[in-house]
Amino acid sequence: MSVNPVSQTLPILPKLSDFYVDEVIKAALKEDINYIDVTTDLLIPPESQSTAVMTAKSDGVLSGIEVALRVFGLLDKDAVVTFSLNDGSPLRKGVKIAEITGNTASLLKAERTALNLLQHMSGIATYTSLCVNAVNGTGVVIADTRKTLPGLRVLQKYAVLCGGGSNHRFNLSSAAMIKDNHIDACGSITEAVTALRKRAGHMVMTEVEVNSFERLREAVAVGADIIMLDNMTVEMMREAVGIVAGLTDSAKTSQNRPLLEASGNVTLDNIREVADTGVDIISIGALTHSVAVVDVGLNLSAV
Amino acid sequence: MSVNPVSQTLPILPKLSDFYVDEVIKAALKEDINYIDVTTDLLIPPESQSTAVMTAKSDGVLSGIEVALRVFGLLDKDAVVTFSLNDGSPLRKGVKIAEITGNTASLLKAERTALNLLQHMSGIATYTSLCVNAVNGTGVVIADTRKTLPGLRVLQKYAVLCGGGSNHRFNLSSAAMIKDNHIDACGSITEAVTALRKRAGHMVMTEVEVNSFERLREAVAVGADIIMLDNMTVEMMREAVGIVAGLTDSAKTSQNRPLLEASGNVTLDNIREVADTGVDIISIGALTHSVAVVDVGLNLSAV
Amino acid sequence: MSVNPVSQTLPILPKLSDFYVDEVIKAALKEDINYIDVTTDLLIPPESQSTAVMTAKSDGVLSGIEVALRVFGLLDKDAVVTFSLNDGSPLRKGVKIAEITGNTASLLKAERTALNLLQHMSGIATYTSLCVNAVNGTGVVIADTRKTLPGLRVLQKYAVLCGGGSNHRFNLSSAAMIKDNHIDACGSITEAVTALRKRAGHMVMTEVEVNSFERLREAVAVGADIIMLDNMTVEMMREAVGIVAGLTDSAKTSQNRPLLEASGNVTLDNIREVADTGVDIISIGALTHSVAVVDVGLNLSAV
Amino acid sequence: MSVNPVSQTLPILPKLSDFYVDEVIKAALKEDINYIDVTTDLLIPPESQSTAVMTAKSDGVLSGIEVALRVFGLLDKDAVVTFSLNDGSPLRKGVKIAEITGNTASLLKAERTALNLLQHMSGIATYTSLCVNAVNGTGVVIADTRKTLPGLRVLQKYAVLCGGGSNHRFNLSSAAMIKDNHIDACGSITEAVTALRKRAGHMVMTEVEVNSFERLREAVAVGADIIMLDNMTVEMMREAVGIVAGLTDSAKTSQNRPLLEASGNVTLDNIREVADTGVDIISIGALTHSVAVVDVGLNLSAV
Amino acid sequence: MSVNPVSQTLPILPKLSDFYVDEVIKAALKEDINYIDVTTDLLIPPESQSTAVMTAKSDGVLSGIEVALRVFGLLDKDAVVTFSLNDGSPLRKGVKIAEITGNTASLLKAERTALNLLQHMSGIATYTSLCVNAVNGTGVVIADTRKTLPGLRVLQKYAVLCGGGSNHRFNLSSAAMIKDNHIDACGSITEAVTALRKRAGHMVMTEVEVNSFERLREAVAVGADIIMLDNMTVEMMREAVGIVAGLTDSAKTSQNRPLLEASGNVTLDNIREVADTGVDIISIGALTHSVAVVDVGLNLSAV
Amino acid sequence: MSVNPVSQTLPILPKLSDFYVDEVIKAALKEDINYIDVTTDLLIPPESQSTAVMTAKSDGVLSGIEVALRVFGLLDKDAVVTFSLNDGSPLRKGVKIAEITGNTASLLKAERTALNLLQHMSGIATYTSLCVNAVNGTGVVIADTRKTLPGLRVLQKYAVLCGGGSNHRFNLSSAAMIKDNHIDACGSITEAVTALRKRAGHMVMTEVEVNSFERLREAVAVGADIIMLDNMTVEMMREAVGIVAGLTDSAKTSQNRPLLEASGNVTLDNIREVADTGVDIISIGALTHSVAVVDVGLNLSAV
Predict the structure, then answer these.
(1) Arithmetic mean of pLDDT over chain A
(2) Phi, psi for D300 (deg, rounded to 5)
(3) Among A263, C141, E264, E286, which is least packed, fewest CB within 10 Å?
(4) Beta bridge partners of E110
(5) Nearest to A30 among F14, F20, F158 (CB)
(6) If you average pLDDT over residues E79-88, what whole number do you get?
(7) Is the dihedral of CA B238, B244, B247, B252 positive or negative?
(8) Which is the catalytic residue, given A76, A144, A209, A280?
(9) How high does pLDDT run on average in chain D?
(10) Chain F nearest CA to D137, separation (Å)
(11) pLDDT surpasses 80 at D183
């Protein structure tokens, strides 16, 4: 992986709430420790102190460093942690990420849970960053989806931000997405959007999923905020962009036309081509549903 | 992916407890629905009934079908579900997996959570199955690790079984793994194993991680139950197998010698080569930490 | 209270998820029963069956009937419930709302929790309905706020819908509201909105809170989706409506101009006057933070 | 509202347990933040520090100050809080209640949850205090009921104490209340009380609800600890007091006669009249079920 | 153990709430199953059905039968359970208690948790019953204490009722117990009781712990509801009973004098002697803190 | 009880995880405090500070001191605790165990929960220690079982370690135990063990329960890791030891033969006799299911 300079400006990142993060970590520790660490608890002297150094074992983008370090803090209140890199930073193989000094047994018990979280989140940030870099200069936004893993949506969506990506709606309450079944139930896109605008709150953004130019035109006409081009070919997307421009040409800014979102079958191989069609957003389920970890190591040495 | 006939005999699978599965699903639904489905709840007539057909969109191995179908049951107690394939079954692109008839709005709300679970679990089963098939005939066991995602260990380890794999220890309490830090703290492998045997319960299996032949010999001598060959080359593994055979030749069966587990840097490309060294077990973190989904679709039609 | 015919057409209502509702009810029952009902458990014969009739003791709008009836179901799986009125229906003093037949002891234990929920939710729906009716014909939307009670937001926001009102953003994640502190931190409304548009996801609606005409003009110019007129007098609101119309007159529909939301110091006494200024939305914290119950009675008779 | 000097002596108040309060707050924060504060997290510089001043915007009685300040502590461990007024203190419009210095983003995220709790609890304390003051000099106790909101009973009952009121039984386990259904099931008040005395533990106080003088006499005769006069007119209550005095005149102190509790239809308009009948306790559901908030503001300024 | 005919009349028992019981059971099952039953899930054919017969293996009193049977229901919704004995029934070694027919694997997984609950609860009921029978004819009540095991108080207090005993206060909120530290803080018993009566709600029963006759007289004088004779000798208790009788002789019934509770060092050996002193209640921590199980067996046979 | 010098060397003990222990304690405090301590909160001045001294009131072995002291810390963050004895230490009646200085009201509220935990855990450690001492010199291991109380398994198994005992499998996932039903389902011990070895993970230890010498021989032949002699007489056990020795005499060390576990009907009276038969392990359900507390007192004095 090659992280180009574009991503050197770290993204603005939200602060995840401690009470949420702690809950995920405690669940993970309960799963992994359960009762005791039968090896560590019975072999490592309880007074032993060590320093653990966390090092990148491959290139990528960092995500979850505060989450991972919190694992150590939850098992050893007196652990001292320092980290050299913030979330969103590019990782180079061999670079030191953080250092933790504390009770040896606690460090060993925390290790796996901390790395499981950090490696997964960094995996998401890394793949997102590759996508973001691939469309560099086009102004296209790379967005995630609701295809996340149960219980991990907050961490996964945050990791997408770390990689320079953007979050699609957080859940079914936070924005509307009108799909085929909704259109069928209402009779038409026009009727569906009209009904929703009347029934939903004024803070609800409305996206319409279309798979034909006819539906695209209808969605533009009824004033959808965002239009998803569902599983269209690159050629179709290019034509869709033209159609929307034609229908909204009197309005000069993006404020006044619906945003176009490409979705489906986008990979690193074709993402630039998709971006070049002029769509505004490319949403990619694989950012969160098919993630390969970034390898991170932890080495302990006696204090 | 090509699933060869070896896996046609479905593995013996445990039954996951409802109370556990329901808890994971409810957490996922809370995350995804939160308050209401602002699109579906406001556009789909509440009395509408539909049938949803679940279909494989790529080849693979099925895992999580009962978990996924339970999602529909939790949102619509009267939903009728039938499934054509059991967990562990090979999937062919286009094959029908299951059918659910029930309240349309509930089906739409359940869809994403059900598919997120099913696709992830089937992804694990599929990759596991590829590994298992790759070592077909060698008698080598493909095992998972503790490199799982927080809150999902039970589902992930179960999915490994669906793919024909085997579970390594479930957590830090259930078996012992003596690593470098433990050996250093005790002085030697011999001292570590001896101390643990004295202090740990009699139901605790003991594995020792070694990275040299000297340590390997010591581990055999002290009677470790399993020995992990940590990040060894294929050549080293082959030699390790020979060393252990030599040390235990008077004992004819595997009962009387430690099992050898290969770990680290094993991919589909080299797994057969590793298996052919004569090791007993190959453990692979990627089975659970770097999983690509198997694509599954859901189509609704009015009843 | 007088519920005029306007509200006779029941609102389209979402279906709250059972797993959410059950959790609230179980928490309430634990709080109220704790161990046993020391009176009922020791005095009422366990085999005794009764029919309980739920009756409105004052006028209002019904909300929470399914929630309330679920309380009885959780304490007596075999209870038979029938209800004569749906959520959103007007209530007249004396009208029968529902009937529950089941185990007498369970009915008595469920009574208080069921009524506490129903009376509170109906209180919200009733006050909302009064506000909605007061602006009848103006097209103004009555919306709630985030001024809800801990743990009850879902039920309270749902009750607002039952009264014909509309939901403002559900939480801090689901939409943006730029207030003074955000503007100060960024330097100006323009900078704040521009920064947010760049950093937030494309499904995030943006509202700006203004307290002067200068800020109002700036918010319109930068294209805010919604503008909140914060604690303005009726005269100021009227002028604000004119300003926005002037700035956006080339655009004929509400699609092309920001919505205006009035907030602060709105009561039943002045709500019509506020609505007549031409604002689009009136948001009222009191809908959920200062609710008087609608009185509902429950009478048991032996089966 | 006018808080007369009577309440200047602050009530003796229990200390609510942190673990309970934290649980309520975390649930509220999860509801309100969910994932991130999309406005604050993306616009406020993470290193920004501010001081927030909490000020009463109307008169009343304070309740929940430690609860509210704990919200800030949970989002910013290093926040420094100081408060000028204790729970139970009278509030004058414009008076400063507390000051919090800490991370600006955390202050903004905590604000709504803290105020929602404080305003609701102070609303309860304020209304209770009005009732208490209205009966000043009569010795009558103002008590709450079980008509509380799900999940909030502890906070609501505590707020009643802050207003100078008294708590009725906490739940169905902690004391007995014999109502019509129990009397019917047992045959008579005498049989019900006798059976309960025999079956319930010796720490269970027994109250009997009566709606006629005949039942009142029976309740006195059987030695009920407390007798509730259910929905009686003021005239009936006065007569009831006389009847009980007549039946127990040989016993001089309140120790030796049942306490009389008035319940139903008591408002600020008639509460003094009710108190003057000579009843011992007036219980009022509206203390907790129909609460209007006390308005409290929070203003931030840069440190 | 010999259960004499006195206990043949089963006590009136409360119905424990399903939502509470289910929570305890699910926690227990999670603890005991965790992931899978590695023996049963892999060896017992999933379609196998069996009948399990539950039999007493020693004499005693039954408690927890519905709780225990619920364990089977939670693991196999279709299990059919029938029970021959109700809670509170005497058990004879060899007698059949219940029969469960269902999925063999589920029966095996439920067995340990069900028996752990039933044997513990029956152990409590049995020991309680022995105490109750030992004081047969004296009218003395045998009561439990707050010396219960974390998380199990509801089940343990219920089991005391099954054995014919009575419940002391359920928790620190439900009634008052004035001990040395409270007396010291207030200055005297008189001041403590007076202060509490003024500050606590009217439904709070007040008990005073005394260790001298002087304090006893003071407690009687101030009108304590119950007086605990703390660690007194049998002789002292007898004298205490006389003192109280003397002080209250004008009042003929127990209504008009405080109840006397003996506490401390009471065993089956001296309980009759203690009861014969004339105290009203004997409270015994060992009922719940030092319980020996009643042995119950479960045998499966194929259907 | 007499604790002989054997146990003076304290056992190596694991550190229980704070997040687990805190959860148990909070559940216990919620159960015991619920709302407020109606006595302490209303009578003890909130600023009062005291020192509490914890003293053994009988001989035994200490377990749970850190757990018990944590209770005080959870109610008073500023409490200062010091303890003189570690878990596993012998207790002599009258010896001081620990001292806590802090808020008086918090000390009083924590007292019961802290002692309930400490006395129960020390009771387990004490009985375990008696068993361990009784077999002193034989090399026999005293092990617990799965007969634990719901929700308390971690604390109970830890207490067994404090008493010098050993833990049997933690749960149904962590090791396999083949019983009659499994053998019947598979056809024979040989088939059951063989099937399990093939299906279960390589970290799963396998124990077989036998009740006849024929089955014993079969279990040895098939290479069971551990064999449980179920409810055998002492004579049978002795013979069983001889049989196993005969079958495995060519293998000199315990490494090469199955361990023998005696189970059923072992008491302090016959435990030495059982140990002298030559079995390796004696497992005793009563260690955790029928525990008598060790009495510990807590005395407060003003600071």
Answers:
(1) 94
(2) -100, 145
(3) E264
(4) none
(5) F20
(6) 95
(7) negative
(8) A209
(9) 94
(10) 23
(11) yes
Residues on chain E touching F159 (C-beta within 8 angstroms) = none
Query: What distance in Å separates the CA atoms of residue F155 and residue E276, rounded to the nearest whole number?
Result: 40
Beta bridge partners of B90: B61
State the smallest CA–CA distance between residue A133 and chain D in angstroms.
22
Sheet containing E226-230: which strands, arranged edge to edge?
E141-143, E281-283, E259-263, E226-230, E206-210, E176-178
What is this structure's pTM?
0.96
pLDDT (tens, 9 = 90+) of chain B, 303 residues, equals 333 434 457 889 999 999 999 999 999 999 999 999 999 999 999 999 999 999 999 999 999 999 999 999 999 999 999 999 999 999 999 999 999 999 999 999 999 999 999 999 999 999 999 999 999 999 999 999 999 999 999 999 999 999 999 999 999 999 999 999 999 999 999 999 999 999 999 999 999 999 999 999 999 999 999 999 998 999 999 999 999 999 876 544 444 689 999 999 899 999 999 999 999 999 999 999 999 999 999 999 988
Q: Measured between beta carbons, which residues in chain E are less than 8 angstroms from residue C31?
A: none
What is the rounded CA–CA span in Å between residue F300 and residue F99?
A: 10
Q: What is the largest CA-CA distance in chain D?
A: 75
**F47: which 2 tokens?**
């600023």
CB contact at 8 A, C180 and C144: no
Record: contact D149-C42, CB cut-off 8 A: no
Distance from the B146 Cα atom to the nearest Cα atom in chain E, whole angstroms: 14
d(CA F54, CA A186): 72
CB atoms within 10 A of CB C47: 8
Which residue reads 């396998």 in tokens?
F206
Give the residue ranges of DSSP H helices in D189-295: 189-199, 213-221, 234-247, 271-275, 286-289
| Gap between the Cα atoms of F145 and F154, Å rounded | 12
Q: Which residue has the tokens 């017992």?
A: E44
Q: Provide the 3-class DSSP secondary structure of residue C167.
A: coil
| A to B CB pairs, distance under 8 Å | 206
Which of B30, B34, B106 is facing C170, going by the closest CB pair? Answer: B34
Chain center to CA of C299: 28
Helical segments of F94-188, H only: 104-134, 153-162, 180-186
Q: Is the dihedral of CA C22, C28, C32, C34 positive or negative?
A: positive
Predicted complex ipTM: 0.95
Structure tokens, B204: 């605790």
F64 φψ region: left (φ > 0), alpha (ψ -120 to 50), beta (else): left
Inter-chain residue contact E29 with B16, CB threshold 8 Å: no
CB contact under 8 A, B20 and E41: no
Asked if D41 and A15 come within 8 Å (Cβ–Cβ), the reply is yes
| B112 labelled catalytic | yes
Of C12, C202, C206, which to mutate for an interface test with A (greatest number of A Cβ within 10 Å)? C202
- Residue E166: closest C-alpha in chain D: D201
Give the nearest chain E residue to D162 (CA atoms): E199
E249-287: pLDDT as tens digits: 654 444 468 999 999 989 999 999 999 999 999 999 999
pLDDT band of E9, cuts 50, 70, 90? confident
Joined together, the tokens standing for residue D131 give: 């009732």
Q: Where are the beta strands (DSSP E) in F40-143?
A: 49-56, 60-61, 80-83, 90-91, 96-103, 141-143
Q: Which residue has the higher pLDDT, B254 or E300?
A: E300
- Distance, in Å, from the CA atom of D168 to the CA atom of D261, rounded to the nearest integer, reads 10
In the block, tokens 């719901």 appear at F150
Q: Is E198 a catalytic residue?
A: no
> Which residues, 6+ apart, have CB-to-CB distance to E16 below 8 Å?
C36, E66, E67, E154, E155, E158
Phi and psi, residue C302, nearest 5°: -60, 145
Considering only CB atoms, which residues of chain A are within 8 Å of chain C? Answer: 11-12, 141, 143, 166-170, 173-175, 199-205, 207, 223, 226, 253, 255-256, 259, 261, 280-281
